[in-house]
């Protein structure tokens, strides 16, 4: 598998011209759009897909979120969908043959008040009933997991304990995450088109790639439809 510091594969940089029609047109080339294109191809064999992105691939929320990947949420529905996502992450780098810098070092949520302790212990119990790896740690156990945390009771807001999910982790830097997502969309979907806007009120009828920035008057390209 290439490392995160290797040169990005060439297919990440190609700029296909829009075709007249696709089976599916996805508006938005962020994490959700690229993942949708990838799984349409990977799970359903649908490869005639265009992903239209106004800026650059994965350049929005995906490039500036917290990078934490976990599933220890309180509600059963939220925990289930994030647990599924975490499981996908655990095999995604191998599936893409691309280093996402996904490190499962665990995540601690510190509790500093009795109310936070009650809420945290409740969440751990709910997680364990859902089969999620969740643990409640006392201050000494917190210090063993993360020695740099000061658990002294003399602190203004002392650590009373923490929730801990060992399988949680993070994917960084954002460039590697975005590159991996671009790899996913580009490997299996033929047309990830960045620098592109779609224009009509009812349907995506025209693709307008902006080839030179800052161009105030981009040229409208061929009609681009789905279905």
Descriptive key words:
D-Amino Acid Oxidase, Chain A, domain 2, 227 residues, elongated, FAD/NAD(P)-binding domain, alpha/beta, 32% helix, single chain, 2 domains
Q: Can you describe what's shown?
A:
By secondary structure, the protein is of the alpha/beta class. The protein folds into two domains: 1-66 and 174-227, FAD/NAD(P)-binding domain; 68-171, D-Amino Acid Oxidase, Chain A, domain 2 (2-Layer Sandwich). Helix content is 32%, strand content 18%. Strand 2, helix 1 and strand 3 form a beta-alpha-beta unit. It is elongated. The protein starts with 20 loop residues before the first strand and ends with a strand.
SSE topology:
Elements: E1 21-22, E2 24-27, H1 31-44, E3 49-52, E4 68-69, H2 76-96, E5 102-103, E6 107-111, H3 114-129, E7 135-137, H4 139-145, E8 161-165, E9 169-171, H5 174-188, E10 191-193, E11 196-198, E12 207-209, E13 225-226
Parallel strand pairs: 1-13, 2-3, 3-10
Antiparallel strand pairs: 4-9, 5-9, 6-8, 7-8, 11-12
Helix pairs in contact: 1-5
What average pLDDT do the residues reach? 79
* Element string (H = helix, E = strand): EEHEEHEEHEHEEHEEEE
Strand line-up in the sheet with most strands: 2-3-10
Counting structural domains, the number is 2
Task: Please provide a brief summary of the model.
With 227 residues, this protein is of the alpha/beta class. 32% of the residues lie in helices and 18% in strands.
